[in-house]
């Protein structure tokens, strides 16, 4: 059989694995919803959670589609589709593919058409390198989780603070990241406007203000529905504001 | 209590089966391609490619597992480590759902809400990527339009601006020190950028836990 990176068989193989991952998500969703009914949780809250999560996911998922398109130019469509549906990200997969190809004395993006052998090497390097979490969670997930539960039963208040602290720790790292090019204001990079580093800061500020306004609208006008959509609204308006802000500051 | 344990036990049992099955399926992809197209791997190049890639990814993967599993809950962990995009999608989605419903992440309700949010997000992501693959020809010029590029380039600041304002304002005593530390580090250490933010997440988490513990012991929290 003659190989090409968009061969129907590759679509079939990727499709089967993506279908299995979709089935796992549906299985866990159904299991959690069933359990929520069994313990008498308010089902309106469950429906609201599903609705909000679905709406919030749309913009980040479109960003993943853009990554699939970017990678498909050098790897064909099935492999990026598979890799970005299961675990991967654009930066991880690009580095893995580049390393696999350069080990064969080639440069990704400068190869006319990949041979089956190069393709097998690329997909093996990508797969083996990225799958730590998939097997490590089954190995240690229960112990880690039970550790958290036993902490909660010993000191409930500290367990709650600990959870908030973990979330805030992650959020603070990303808030710091927003300022990573801020120093361009006093350490200019040739060919780049000094104010470029302010773009993510301004976008973050717009998103934060939108979120604060949503909170205000909820309190002042009792618009409870705003609570459901505040994060997706602030995300999309923040992203939209990046278009004029980037034109202005870069 | 017994019922909760049995539900969680079944989540761990099912999660192990699902994750290990997906792992086998993932490995089957290159193996089947190799057999069908009669193309055995170039073993030397494979080894070199893995040596250049795997140690860093494995180190990051191990750190991410220890950092994110306690935050994602049981069901959310099994799903998130299969579907990926944890810090930029699954975890914010779960945090937002817990916050909206005013539910403690450590409770059984928290476990269920977190799993439901992450599963929904995974399903929607998978479906949107499938649609993107099917419609790639008409979609490519739209999604790659230069006018939209800045919007997608600034997704993380837009996400964490909204999420940050809620969490920082509600927990400002806990948030003050880690936010200041991260701002100083990211502004003044040139090596910290988009590529290294993942490594700074566990640093931020450990630092915030240490600060919170001190504040808790002193009765400030």
Descriptive report:
The complex is a heterodimer of chains A (250) and B (221). Chain A is 78% helix and 0% strand. Chain A has 250 residues and is an all-alpha fold. Chain A folds into 2 domains: 8-130, no CATH class; 179-250, no CATH class. Chain A is globular and about 65 Å long. Chain B is mostly helical and 221 residues long. Chain B contains 10 helices and no strands. The radius of gyration of chain B is 21 Å and the shape is globular. In chain B, helix 3 (74-83) packs antiparallel against helix 4, helix 4 crosses helix 5 (108-134) and helix 8 runs antiparallel to helix 9. The chains are: A mainly alpha (250), B mainly alpha (221). At the A-B interface, helix 1, helix 2, helix 3, helix 4 and helix 5 of A face helix 1, helix 2, helix 3, helix 4 and helix 5 of B.
Based on secondary structure, the structural category of chain B is mainly alpha
CA-CA gap between termini of chain B: 28 Å
Main sheet properties of chain A: none
Order of helices and strands of chain B: HHHHHHHHHH
E-strand count of chain A = 0
- Annotation field: number of helices of chain A: 9
SSE sequence of chain A, one letter per element: HHHHHHHHH
Radius of gyration of chain B: 21 Å
Structural class of chain A: mainly alpha
- What count of domains describes the coordinates of chain A? 2
Cα radius of gyration of chain A in angstroms: 23 Å
Q: Sheet bearing the most strands of chain B, described?
A: none
Give the topology.
The complex is a heterodimer of chains A (250) and B (221).
Chain A (H helix, E strand, L loop, with lengths): L7 H31 L4 H33 L2 H8 L4 H13 L13 H15 L1 H23 L1 H23 L20 H23 L2 H26 L1
Chain B lengths: L1 H35 L6 H30 L1 H10 L2 H16 L6 H27 L1 H8 L5 H5 L1 H16 L1 H17 L8 H21 L4
Helix pairs in contact in B: 1-3, 2-3, 2-10, 3-4, 3-5, 4-5, 8-9, 9-10
Highlighted features:
heterodimer; A: 250 residues; mainly alpha; 78% helix; 0% strand; B: 221 residues; 10 helices; 84% helix; globular
């Amino acid at each position: 059989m003659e190989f090409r990176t968009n061969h129907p068989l590759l679509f079939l193989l990727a499709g089967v694995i993506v279908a299995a991952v979709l089935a796992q998500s549906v299985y866990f969703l159904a299991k959690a919803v069933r359990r929520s009914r069994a313990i008498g949780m308010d089902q309106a809250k469950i429906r609201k959670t599903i609705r909000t999560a679905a709406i919030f996911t749309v913009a980040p998922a479109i960003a993943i589609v853009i990554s699939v398109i970017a990678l498909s130019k050098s790897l064909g469509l099935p492999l990026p589709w598979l890799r970005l549906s299961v675990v991967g990200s654009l930066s991880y997969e690009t580095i893995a593919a580049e390393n696999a190809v350069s080990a064969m004395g080639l440069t990704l993006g400068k190869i006319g058409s990949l041979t089956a052998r190069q393709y097998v090497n690329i997909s093996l390097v990508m797969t083996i390198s990225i799958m730590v979490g998939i097997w490590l969670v089954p190995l240690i997930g229960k112990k880690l989780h039970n550790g958290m539960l036993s902490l909660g039963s010993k000191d409930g208040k500290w367990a709650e603070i600990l959870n908030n602290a973990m979330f805030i720790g992650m959020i603070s790292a990303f808030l710091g990241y927003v300022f990573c090019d801020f120093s361009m204001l006093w350490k200019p990079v040739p060919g780049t406007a000094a104010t470029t580093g302010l773009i993510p800061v301004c976008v973050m500020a717009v998103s934060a203000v939108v979120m604060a306004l949503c909170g205000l609208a909820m309190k002042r006008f009792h618009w409870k529905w705003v609570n459901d959509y505040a994060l997706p609204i602030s995300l999309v308006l923040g992203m939209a504001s990046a278009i004029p802000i980037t034109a202005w500051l870069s | 209590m017994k019922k909760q344990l049995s539900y969680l036990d079944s989540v761990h049992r099912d999660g192990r089966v699902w994750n290990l099955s997906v792992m086998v399926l993932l490995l089957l992809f290159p193996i089947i391609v190799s057999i069908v197209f009669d193309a055995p791997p170039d073993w030397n190049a494979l080894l070199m490619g893995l040596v250049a890639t795997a140690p860093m990814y494995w180190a990051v993967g191990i750190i991410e597992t220890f950092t994110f599993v306690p935050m994602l809950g049981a069901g959310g962990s099994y799903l998130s480590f299969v579907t990926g995009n944890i810090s930029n999608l699954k975890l914010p989605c779960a945090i937002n759902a817990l916050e909206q419903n005013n539910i403690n992440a450590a409770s059984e309700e928290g476990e269920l809400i977190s799993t439901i949010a992450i599963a929904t997000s995974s399903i929607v992501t998978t479906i949107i990527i499938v649609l993107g693959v099917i419609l790639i020809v008409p979609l490519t010029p739209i999604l790659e339009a230069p006018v939209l590029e800045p919007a997608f380039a600034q997704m993380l600041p837009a996400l964490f601006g909204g999420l940050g304002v809620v969490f920082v304002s509600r927990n400002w005593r806990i948030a003050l020190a880690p936010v200041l530390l991260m701002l100083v580090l990211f502004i003044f250490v040139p090596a910290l950028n988009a590529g290294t933010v993942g490594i700074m997440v566990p640093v931020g988490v450990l630092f915030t836990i240490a600060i919170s513990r001190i504040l808790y012991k002193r009765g400030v929290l």
